[in-house]
Every structure is written in C-alpha cells, then in structure tokens.
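I have a small job for you when you get a moment. Would you make up a two-line entry for one protein for me to read? No commentary is needed, just the two lines. Write everything out right here, beneath this request.
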Amino acid sequence: MGDSPIIYFRPEISGVNSSKFIANYENRFGRKPEVNVARTYDALYVTAHVLRICDAQHDLTSECIRDELYTIHDFPGVVGTINFDEYGDVSIPYVVKTVRDGQFMRLEEQ
C-alpha cells in the first residue's frame, strides 16, 4: 500500500467558551474531554436554548423547536461557532488532521 498519509476532518474544541469547558471537565473527570463530549455538550446547550425560547412563547411544539433551530447563527459553542441553515443542517468548524509518528495533529503542523 505504500506510505500514504492518513488525512481526515475533525472538529476541535476551539470555541470562545472552550477553555472554561475544558477546565471544568478536567476538574471533574481528571482528563481532557474528547471532541465528541464537547459536541454533545453543544447539542444539549443549543437544545436548552431553543426550548427556553419556545417555552417563553408558550409554544413547546416540534414546529417551534424546528423553527427556532433554523434561526441559530453564530452560536458560541465549545467546538466553535454553530450555525444552522434553512434545511436544519448544522455547520461547525472542522480542521484537517493527519497522523505523524503515532500522533494526531493538524495537517499544517507537520
């Protein structure tokens, strides 16, 4: 097969609130959080945000939740800025990573 590099895309914990999230996680669990933990945190945080809006409008319906999700733009998550498009697809920043000498790193760091 040769020495082809492994290249993949992955979100990172790099949002404006990430340092506080990482510190709280390390304090509680004694290790750094994996990116999927941060993504789950962001998903719950966005969901809570939308539920509060719909609850304030006395409209806790799936339609309200959907419609409010579609309005999320520039939401400060721990994995970066979160945006939803008109179809409900979420956009978060990804970086290009690779494996070098057994270490996972950004491609441009090699």
User: Anything to note?
Assistant: Residues 35-56 form the longest helix (22 residues).
